[in-house]
Amino acid sequence: VTSEQAADGFVLDPRLAADTVAVHELPLCSLRLMNDARWPWLILVPRRTGACELVDLDASQQSQLLQEINLCARALQRHCAPHKLNIAALGNVVAQLHIHIIARFRDDPAWPRPVWGHGEVEPYSDAALQARRSMLLVELSDA
Amino acid sequence: VTSEQAADGFVLDPRLAADTVAVHELPLCSLRLMNDARWPWLILVPRRTGACELVDLDASQQSQLLQEINLCARALQRHCAPHKLNIAALGNVVAQLHIHIIARFRDDPAWPRPVWGHGEVEPYSDAALQARRSMLLVELSDA
User: Fold this and answer.
1) Are A129 and A34 in contact, with CB atoms under 8 Å apart?
2) Which residues of chain A make contact with B116, given a CB cutoff of 8 A?
3) Closest partner residue to A66 among B62, B88, B111, by Cβ?
4) pTM for the whole thing?
5) For B25-80, what is each residue's pLDDT tens digit?
């Protein structure tokens, strides 16, 4: 378990830090990739200490979050043309506000059920993780 | 299975119509209550024919959706002071765009797992359904 502290004092939840890898810093959120090769799975974490619910953000932060969700959703669509996107703010296990954006396919291991808690995590190989991350960065920059 | 057609020609998905009851018509969305007494569980359905993904809505529709999500989230907080809200657009089973806003408690039947697909639905009694709906309408109008 590691902790990651940003220049503005925001500390990423240790479990999120352990389960994900950094992709990019957006204006509001840290964009992370879940280290689970079963699904292309992005996580946005608004760098706002103490925020647990969407309604804990003010209107301008919410508007920015919406832009960043759109960016991630479109990047995943270009990256892998999923049958469906799953976008969710749950936080039952990790209270720190974070938004899942997950590419789903009709032949994926959990379809049509949700991915959370399904089976065992399959971490990427180092090479596959870097490849996925690089491809997503290209799609994010094309937005 | 019933179908519900709005004045603007929008037709609610038959499965959503069967699993939920109408609560209120908001500017963008039909607000429905899931007929499952295990959780206070609202569903917003944007009345936009063909929309399946959040990114199928244009910027002004997305902004309106965000306002309606906030309205529902705050109404649920006042209604039952949940430990956590779960807010999600999944759509793996019903493709028509719809957003779940669910009040979660640390002693609820699925905690901390997601509610979708958990156990058997427990429909409200008629009296309990009307009571829940009426209480939510009060909280929605107080927003």
Assistant:
1) no
2) 113-114
3) B62
4) 0.95
5) 999 999 999 999 999 999 999 999 999 999 999 999 999 999 999 999 999 999 99
State the DSSP string of A51-83. --SGGGS-HHHHHHHHHHHHHHHHHHHHHH--S
Q: What is the helix, strand, coil percentage profile of chain A, to 5? A: 35, 25, 45
Question: What is the C-alpha separation between B92 and A83, in angstroms, rounded?
Answer: 9
What residue in B sits closest to A105 (Cα-Cα)? B92
This complex has an ipTM of: 0.95
Encode pLDDT of A54-110 as tens digits: 999 999 999 999 999 999 999 999 999 999 999 999 999 999 999 999 999 999 999
Would you call A27 exposed, middle or buried from its count of C-beta atoms within 10 A (0-12, 13-18, 19+)? exposed
Do the strands B41-46 and B99-104 form a parallel or antiparallel pair, or are they unpaired?
antiparallel
A108 in the Ramachandran plot: left (φ > 0), alpha (ψ -120 to 50) or beta? beta
Rg (CA), chain B: 14
Interface check for A94 against chain B (CB to CB < 8 A): the answer is no
What is d(CA A73, CA A85) in angstroms, rounded to the nearest whole number? Answer: 7
